[in-house]
Design brief:
Blueprint (H helix, E strand, L loop, with lengths): L16 E16 L2 E14 L5 E3 L13 H10 L6 H8 L3 H14 L10 E8 L8 E7 L5 E5 L4 H8 L4 H4 L4 E4 L3 H10 L4 E4 L1 H22 L5 H9 L1 H5 L11 E2 L6 E2 L1 H9 L3 H18 L3 H11 L6 H12 L1 H9 L5 H16 L6 H13 L12 H7 L1
Parallel strand pairs: 4-7, 7-8
Antiparallel strand pairs: 1-2, 2-3, 4-5, 5-6, 9-10
Helix pairs in contact: 2-3, 3-16, 4-6, 7-8, 7-11, 7-13, 11-12, 12-14
Protein name: Transposase
Organism: Granulicatella balaenopterae
């Protein structure tokens, strides 16, 4: 029995609230043995003698004005976390895709922090979004320690991202100490404008990727230059491109094997030595780039700076020199990356899952629906994570 009238607040005493017939409704419940289940529910109506109003009894099975049970809501929310299309979820639970989309949008709204909190470490990146946004690219930022996405912004342009972060109070923005990103300069302007206490940390992977692209370019240039004069060597350069990009200290020099392009038994080190001898420019670039990659691998910021300075004494291709000048310009930010364990690796994994969701769903046309689906995919279930120490020095002590 109700304790009081929800409309006038009259306490239920001396039969002031009486029963007033029933209301029948059909409630969709979780499927049973892969078959739809519908509960025919009779809701008791009550009449208040004080205000002459009627109201209906409430149940924990289903929310007010809703015909889908709470347990089915929860199951659909869990299904939305997996990589599958909304239509598949709807067909599996015998509801419309509009219903599934409405549940996802409702859950995504619950994840909003309403510009009240930011972690000490942020990670910035972008991903290929829907066609209705500018340049089809959207901006995503996440907690750099727990790897949990915080929000997704429609536009990745600098002014748009700055306007978004300025919605956070200054006290909240001052809490951010580090921001990890790739070498996209507009994001650096965002950090300088919005986060007064934050230091920029450039992702180590993108630094190595930048170096490898330059090395690969001069390999292709060498291959094309001897394509007709020495076709056998050109095929070797084409086939063993991975060995040239592989770190020099990881090449095998004691495991010998046969290769149809080489005479006798060869090792990985033997192959690379031969390929480098084809072009002195390639050999010089290989030595400089591998020194820099070695410094990054062993987190030696001083050696990285020294090798960058030494590279100025050697004549290099214009595009390789441009790459080294870019690294020199961002040398302080790369130095932070060599001292700290922070990276953008988790965001790259998130972006990979986003691409998979988009492909499985055959694309999205509405940004808000796409954003809601992404947030539900990563924030529905809270998983325990082991937080890595902030610096490599702390990690070495714990090891």
């Amino acid at each position: 029995k109700p304790k009081c009238c929800p409309k006038c607040g009259c306490v239920n005493e001396n039969y002031s609230i009486t029963k007033h017939s029933f209301t029948k409704c059909s409630v969709k419940y979780n499927k049973i043995i892969n078959s739809p289940c519908i509960i025919n529910l009779k809701k008791q109506r009550f009449s208040c003698k004080e205000c002459k109003a009627t109201f209906i009894a409430e149940t924990s099975l289903v929310n007010k004005h809703c015909q889908i049970s709470n347990s089915l809501h929860a199951e659909i929310s869990q299904e939305a976390e997996r990589i599958q299309s909304i239509k598949d979820i709807a067909e599996r639970h015998y509801v419309s895709w509009h219903t599934v989309n409405r549940i996802i949008r409702k859950n995504a709204d619950a994840f909003n922090n309403y510009f009240s909190y930011l972690p000490e470490v942020l990670s910035f990146d972008e991903f290929k979004s829907v066609k209705c946004v500018t340049a089809s690219m959207s901006f995503i930022y996440a907690d750099g320690r727990t790897h949990e996405p915080i929000d997704i912004i429609r536009n990745r342009q600098q002014w748009y991202v700055i306007n978004h972060f300025l919605k956070y109070p200054l006290e909240v923005r001052k809490n951010v100490k580090y921001v990890t990103m790739d070498m996209y300069s507009p994001y650096m302007g965002v950090v300088e404008e919005c986060f007064p206490n934050a230091e920029i940390v450039i992702d180590r992977f993108h630094v190595v990727q930048h170096l490898n692209r330059s090395l690969n370019r001069i390999r292709i240039e060498t291959m094309n230059s001897i394509k007709y004069s020495r076709p056998s060597d050109a095929r070797k350069l084409k086939k063993d491109w991975k060995l040239i990009l592989k770190n020099e200290d990881e090449l095998s020099c004691d495991k010998y094997f046969t290769d149809r392009l080489y005479l006798g038994m060869v090792s990985e080190q033997t192959k690379v030595d031969y390929l480098l001898s084809l072009n002195p420019k390639l050999e010089q670039a290989y030595a400089i780039i591998n020194d820099l990659k070695y410094d990054i691998k062993h987190h030696d910021a001083d050696a990285f700076s020294f090798d960058l300075m030494e590279s100025k004494k050697i004549p290099l291709r214009k595009y390789i020199r441009s790459t080294l000048q870019t690294l020199e310009r961002y040398q302080d930010y790369i130095g932070n990356a060599l001292h700290l364990t922070l990276s953008n690796g988790h965001l790259e994994g998130i972006n990979n899952k986003i691409k998979t969701i988009k492909r499985v769903s055959y694309g999205y046309t509405n940004f808000d629906n796409f954003r809601a689906r992404i947030l539900c995919s990563f924030k529905t279930t809270v998983r325990p994570r082991t937080i890595r120490p902030l610096s490599f020095a702390e990690e070495a002590v714990q090891a």
